Task: structure prediction
Amino acid sequence: MKKITCIVGTRPEAIKMSPVIIELRKNKNFHVTALATGQHTDMLIQALNDFGIVPDVNLNIMKKTQTLDYITASVLQGVGEFLDVHEQDMILVHGDTSTTFAAALAGFYRHIPVGHVEAGLRSHDLSLPFPEEANRLLTDRIAKMFFPPTQGDADNLIREGIDENHIHITGNTVIDALYAILEKQKGIREPEYMRKAEGRPLVLMTAHRRESWGETLRGICEGVIDVIHERNDVVFLIPLHKNPVVRDVIHECLDGYDDNVIFAEPLNYPEFVYAMNRSVFILSDSGGVQEEASAINKPVLIMRTFQKDQMRLLTEHVFLWGQNVRIFVMSH
Ligand code: UD1
Ligand code: UDP
Result:
């Protein structure tokens, strides 16, 4: 029996890795350990819980204020110590967080093959998203098996010299996660916090990216205020990320717009999917949300700093969707 440890640290890793853990556990050839680094606490456990997964190990590293150095060093050390005691045939990491890279490095240092789920994604700009683009590249440099979602992602890996025989295109596991949750949506009741939005157009918004902290995030909130001034019937549902750096700025800018803004704690995944479906439009800087939104045919405006050629595409999309909500492009 092969021993595989699946390592997750943050909410999106939990959501996107859960279908993989569930599938691996069905196969009697594998002994599967779910290891949480605890880079996120409640947001991670909430997401795993939505798929009925309880981590076998939780390193619980999160601090209220944590630097990239701290996360990277403690995940490297914690995962390393686990692997020293529990010999593994393979570890699986997902995506592009600090957990992803540091866990992969711990495996690499011990000559344990690293499998990278969601391998090959590239923006070709090390500063966007930051530090995720570097985390992806570094992880793919030391991984042994690659599970890119699309042919385009596989092509990126091949261009970087990765042996094609080690690449297996899998599709995007977030779509498996989404479909699994959509199955369970039937009969879900409108949550109480949604009452304000009854009979009104709902716009769902999430924002948290590190490169947007500060002024860009304020700019996003000003855009929301502009929309409110223009379309007073619109209601924004904003499930706030737990990071105080993010939630303090959003509160500071949007407190007082009580008739048009619903603040919520991080929604569990079924509730979030319900909110996406209920919205006329989604504003987000999340990688996962843009993938999910397109899978359920919801227009999404991706609030990231775009290079010039990408901006044209963005404008076309907004135009094509023809929503009767004026949105301002809020990048600097
Ligand atoms: C991290 C990832 C980012 C990913 C995002 C998903 C890195 C460097 N960043 O960013 O790639 O897109 O997760 O959300 O890996 N907090 C809580 N409870 C939680 C989670 C977070 O209180 O359950 C607060 C803590 O104060 C914590 C802070 O949020 O210190 C920041 O968490 P951190 O993982 O460092 O950064 P994210 O911005 O969440
Ligand atoms: N999500 C959720 N509840 C929320 C906000 C987001 O379940 O309140 C889900 C969302 O559907 C997506 C993932 O969390 O699958 C995105 O996580 P996040 O925005 O933290 O990370 P990113 O995608 O930006 O890396």
Remarks:
- The pocket of uridine-5'-diphosphate (ligand 2) is lined by residues 11-12, 15, 174, 206, 208, 239, 266-267, 269, 272, 286-289, 292 (CB under 6 Å).
- The chain has twelve helices and eleven strands.
- The domain at 2-184 is CATH 3.40.50.2000 (Rossmann fold).
- Residues 68-85 form the longest helix (18 residues).
